[in-house]
């Protein structure tokens, strides 16, 4: 039987940029010892108190169909958190709970784009972005952020690509680069959005992981609250990656239609998961800071290891749980470097090319293993790079 073009053309190849990761996982499953620095998975699991609340809620009977928009208390709590951190008035009516940030990205593009619409996104990008846009029926259009500008997008490039676009997807703090977009960058995005009348879909799942500068939500800029859909998630801020719970913040009308979309797709998120998320959010900012602290610490470890040599250069890591490393001095592509590193040293990192053309000649390193093991792996990566010259 013939499969739809929609599903067979989601990605340019079957791996969707994940080939190195799949190879590393296969080695591990075969019994090999591999140091995995590939994906953004915390090295400590979800806090026991959150799991206890999840168990209590399930035992209390919250295992049936839950409110499809999200339980009212959770929507209100998310709204209060967003209002407090961004300064933008927000109510539960501006919130729809989703099955994680990835589902939120898909739903947001379903809301913003008709089939065949041009949907802009910044390159380098999180590996699922182009497939998400194609899945929503849009035509993905990459806008490059250049290595020579430390991967800070140039508003002029956005404006040049903007005519006729229905949406622009941005991500700050950024995965894969660790860059925090500046106020000037975001003001340029806002100007283009208002001039050319497109939606901005702002992926802000790393908003608790800021090492330099400040996080400015796109929705907080003048004139942008009514044309911005913000994607948030419990995955990174609360180490709840497997719980699959996130949200979209947007104008009331957009949220009403997104709720209708949820009715026809996920049919909501399990009630006991929502109860656990509510409990987790109520633990406050200190808890979120504690979840982020290991990544702040490993950033400092990395910068000390990388200083005093010029073979491997770090893109300034301002946020998120990654390092984007420039290895172009080796003469290897990011893909070739990562393949050799895995084959010869059993260290797995993601090729920059997995995240777009603009990141060619780079590799992304996740700071997601214990400090000592992380330091040892990064030191070995630097030695390996030097040996390639």
UniProtKB/TrEMBL annotation:
Catalytic activity: L-aspartate + 2-oxoglutarate = oxaloacetate + L-glutamate
CDD domains cross-referenced by the UniProt entry: AAT_like
GO terms (BP aspect): amino acid metabolic process
Keywords, alphabetical: Aminotransferase, Pyridoxal phosphate, Transferase
Cofactors, names only: pyridoxal 5'-phosphate
Limits of the Aminotransferase class I/classII large domain: 34-371
Assigned EC number: 2.6.1.-
Molecular functions per Gene Ontology: L-aspartate:2-oxoglutarate aminotransferase activity; pyridoxal phosphate binding
Family: Belongs to the class-I pyridoxal-phosphate-dependent aminotransferase family.
Protein name: Aminotransferase
The organism of origin for this protein: Marimonas arenosa
């Amino acid at each position: 039987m013939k499969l739809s073009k929609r599903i067979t053309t989601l990605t340019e190849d079957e791996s969707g940029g994940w080939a190195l990761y799949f190879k590393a996982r296969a080695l591990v499953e075969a019994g090999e010892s591999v140091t995995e620095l590939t994906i953004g998975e915390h090295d400590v699991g979800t806090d026991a108190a959150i799991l206890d609340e999840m168990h209590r809620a399930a035992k209390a009977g919250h295992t049936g169909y839950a409110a499809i928009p999200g339980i009212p208390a959770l929507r209100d709590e998310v709204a209060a958190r967003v209002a407090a951190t961004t300064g933008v008035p927000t109510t539960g009516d501006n919130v729809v709970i989703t099955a994680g940030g990835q589902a939120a990205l898909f739903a947001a593009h379903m809301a913003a784009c008709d089939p065949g619409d041009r949907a802009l996104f910044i390159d380098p990008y999180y590996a699922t972005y182009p497939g998400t846009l194609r899945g929503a029926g849009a035509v993905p259009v990459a806008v490059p952020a250049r290595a020579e500008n430390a991967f800070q997008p140039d508003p002029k490039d956005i404006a040049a690509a903007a005519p006729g676009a229905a949406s622009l997807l941005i991500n700050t703090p950024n995965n894969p680069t660790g860059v925090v977009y500046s106020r000037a960058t975001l003001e340029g995005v806002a100007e283009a959005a208002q001039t050319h009348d497109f939606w901005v879909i702002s992926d802000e799942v790393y908003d608790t992981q800021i090492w330099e500068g400040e996080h400015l939500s796109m929705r907080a800029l003048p004139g942008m609250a009514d044309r911005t859909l913000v994607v948030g998630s419990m995955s990174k801020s609360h180490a709840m990656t497997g719980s699959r719970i996130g949200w979209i913040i947007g104008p009331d009308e957009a949220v009403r239609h997104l709720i209708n979309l949820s009715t026809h797709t996920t049919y909501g998120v399990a009630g006991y998961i929502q109860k656990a998320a509510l409990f987790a959010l109520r633990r406050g900012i200190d808890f979120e800071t504690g979840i982020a602290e290991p990544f702040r610490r490993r950033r400092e470890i990395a910068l000390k290891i990388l200083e005093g040599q010029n073979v491997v250069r770090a893109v300034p890591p301002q946020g998120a749980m990654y390092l984007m490393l420039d290895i172009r001095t080796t003469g290897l592509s990011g893909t070739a470097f990562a393949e050799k590193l895995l084959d010869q040293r059993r260290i797995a990192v993601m090729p920059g090319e997995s995240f777009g053309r603009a990141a060619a000649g780079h590799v992304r390193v996740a700071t997601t293993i214990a400090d000592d093991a992380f330091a040892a792996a990064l030191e070995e990566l630097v030695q390996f790079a030097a040996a390639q010259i």
